Amino acid sequence: MGASQTRVEHKYQDLADKTGFSLEQINNLHKRYQQLSDNEETISRDNLDSIPALANNPIRKQIIEAFFDKRNQHQDEVGSCDEIGFEQFLMVMSHFRPPTLKTTVEEKEAMRKEKLRFLFNMHDTDNDGTITLVEYRKVVEELLSKSGDIGLEAARAIADVAMLEVASTNVPHMGPDDFYEGITFEHFEEILKGLEMETRMHIRFLDVNTATMACGKTTS
């Protein structure tokens, strides 16, 4: 029993070093993971798709896919997984970890960049390093058309205009016949330069408040 407990603590310490979570936070996240997976070793898209709080989220698909995107799991790979284990789940969750009072300026900047990269990956669905008009249009269409207040064609037109505005900002000397290939990560950083990320990137649909890390308090 003692040896088994020691192995668990050692594994959690390794995960704490990789993610920045405390041992208590990892333990609480593991409890939520077990609820989501029905105590199985891995989680599938179906496990996340069945979360009631996600049912009416206009970008539900993008949120779920983000968990299975290898780029968000701190791997030097691209592509997606069919299922993920707890360590991969934790790696994705670490993007939502807020800074602490001990977090240095350099660490905060690195965390901000990771959060921006996570958001960028959600839009860059083909892993080519650029958010194209087609990808951008799809997200805007889903956000607007599912609100019930606007039709698909209107949503598509809004996406097109928004992309043109981005293009005029990032490439101010574009000619009228030039083709804008899309938003690079550098462009994306510039667009969101003034956005405060720490208070905006939470995962409340998992019954995990990443602002306070009250991970063990669930409503389901």
UniProtKB/TrEMBL annotation:
Primary localization class, coarse: other
Keyword Membrane: yes
A single Gene Ontology CC term: lamellipodium
Keyword Magnesium set for record: no
A GO BP annotation: cell differentiation
Alphabetical UniProt keywords: Calcium, Cell membrane, Cell projection, Cytoplasm, Differentiation, Lipoprotein, Membrane, Metal-binding, Myristate, Nucleus, Protein kinase inhibitor
Bilayer disposition of the protein: Lipid-anchor
Molecular-function GO terms, alphabetical: calcium ion binding; protein kinase inhibitor activity
Occurrences of domain EF-hand (ranges): 111-146
Location of this chain's protein in the cell: Cell projection, Lamellipodium; Cell projection, Ruffle membrane; Cytoplasm; Membrane
Similarity section: Belongs to the calcineurin regulatory subunit family. CHP subfamily.
Protein name: Calcineurin B homologous protein 3
Source organism: Anoplopoma fimbria
UniProt lineage: Eukaryota, Metazoa, Chordata, Craniata, Vertebrata
